[in-house]
Amino acid sequence: MTILFDIFLILHFIGLASLLGGFMTQMHGMRTGHAAVNAAMLHGALTMAVSGIVLFVLGAVTGHIAGGLAITKYVIKTVVLLIAFGLILRYRREKSAPTGAFAAIGALTLLDVVIAVAMP
User: Fold this and answer.
1) Which of 36, 75, 78, 109 is most buried per CB count within 10 Å?
2) What is the DSSP string of 6-72?
3) What is the value of pTM for the model shown?
């Protein structure tokens, strides 16, 4: 079970790298108003969502996730990621995303990382 958990944790990190990397490659377009949601962002968010759900289930089954605070952390992370994913889905077919929406995707991604690291 530990190996399975580690595999999905690695997939979760790969999804994060893809989402954040895709965002970073498009940041230059924020100044000109041409920041576009790219495929790396879409696939990264999807990978994070699926692997995160699997990690939560595996953690609950093995007893690594016990108690209200740990569950609250995962619920907050899921909501933050789903909001970012919704923005990605909304603007993925557009030539460019509004600067505020694009910045929100990056901020929500970083917030997800901060919650993962800072919350017990």
Assistant:
1) 109
2) HHHHHHHHHHHHHHHHHHHHHTTHHHHT-----HHHHHHHHHHHHHHHHHHHHHHHHTSS-SHHHHH
3) 0.89
